[in-house]
Amino acid sequence: MEHQRIVVKIGSSSLTGPQGGLNHETVAFFASEIAALQQHGHSVLLVTSGAVAAGFREIGYVTRPKLLHEKQAAASVGQALLMRDYQQAFATHGLVSAQILLTRGDFTHRKRASNASMTIEELLKQDVIPVINENDTVSVDELKFGDNDTLSALVANLARASHLLILTDVDGLYSANPSKDPDAVRYDRIDEITDEIYAVAGGAGSAVGTGGMRSKVDAAKIATRGGIPVFVGRVTETGDLLAAARGVGKGSYFATHSASLPMKKQWLGFLSVPLGTLVVDEGAEKALIDNGRSLLPVGIRQIEGQFHAGDVVEVHNLQRETLGRGIVNYDHDQLQQIAGLPSSRIATTLGLDYIQHLEAIHRDEWITL
Ligand SMILES: Nc1ncnc2c1ncn2[C@@H]1O[C@H](COP(=O)(O)OP(=O)(O)O)[C@@H](O)[C@H]1O
Ligand SMILES: N[C@@H](CCC(=O)OP(=O)(O)O)C(=O)O
């Protein structure tokens, strides 16, 4: 196996128990597994949860807090404890580690994403292990990732990793939550993330985890669309992490079919914030999805939101299923006037001599989701 860049994500459920506090032996074990990957010539980026779980007991909460400000307070105590454990554990293998705290806003702003990327590149060049978590102190409501699975997929894309390994307390995705259904069977390999996969992926299984399998499938979707294969499973014994990276781990593998997605399309699909929604008819749905064509105003049935030309909008079919996202060429009030009209009537309806773009969304500015 040649040198690879591997993102490893460790969930709260793997590091702590329901009473909170860190399990120091477990942190030390994961550090030794990561050190083994480094010794095999790979570069590892670690995305770790556990700040809230590590800190809540320390400041006097009996159970994991539910309110945002309490979670933020617990995380600010716990993040330092988490980092202290990792730094000590990596140091015993002669490895230096660095703390990086990110929010979704850091990915949506291209300049900040590029700064984060430059820092990560320099750390990897110096053989330092970036240890990444969400910046819980400044993340509010819609800015929050909510779970670190999505964060790990965004990091994998940003760093152009060759693998994303999501470690959790269950050895893969099962046909039903295996802690509740003893007849559940594991999916060893998932070639396509279908509605059936989403239907079986349930919520968190423990008092400390968030997101459960559902957010892991979301993460797998983001990473595999970016050309990065994903492992979701358990690492409990020496050598398990190396096995996971080699494709023989205890878990499920999500395959990728895409070549790595251009940065612009990644941004459009997974980082941009849509400012409106266009509902389109069956003909437009077919043109966009089956024929890879642009969206013309004639196929638009309904317009929602106050967007302007150049903004990102989401596109729904008549059943209100999301088809994808694109950059729209008209302001919302212009689109209201021309929705349903053939291209020949657009200029006169808008009172213009000529039209720069006949398409509402050009195919080059579109991603199917
Ligand atoms: N179909 C499924 N297959 C496996 N686990 C599932 C499934 N649906 C829900 N789960 C739950 O997801 C949990 C893992 O997610 P989570 O608790 O968020 O862990 P983490 O802290 O590692 O992110 C499992 O322990 C399990 O209870
Ligand atoms: N940033 C938070 C992550 C929250 C969380 O529990 O995430 P996860 O265990 O990955 O589902 C923390 O460190 O506690």
TrEMBL record:
It is found in: Cytoplasm. Pfam families: AA_kinase, PUA. InterPro entries: AceGlu_kinase-like_sf, Asp/Glu/Uridylate_kinase, G5K_ProB, Glu/AcGlu_kinase, Glu_5kinase, Glu_5kinase/COase_Synthase, Glutamate_5-kinase_CS, PUA. Keywords: Amino-acid biosynthesis, ATP-binding, Cytoplasm, Kinase, Nucleotide-binding, Proline biosynthesis, Transferase. Residues 276-359 form the PUA domain. One of its GO terms (molecular function) is glutamate 5-kinase activity. It catalyses: L-glutamate + ATP = L-glutamyl 5-phosphate + ADP. ATP binds at residues 9, 168-169, 210-216. Its EC number is 2.7.2.11. Signal peptide: none annotated. Belongs to the glutamate 5-kinase family. Catalyzes the transfer of a phosphate group to glutamate to form L-glutamate 5-phosphate. This is Glutamate 5-kinase. The gene is proB.
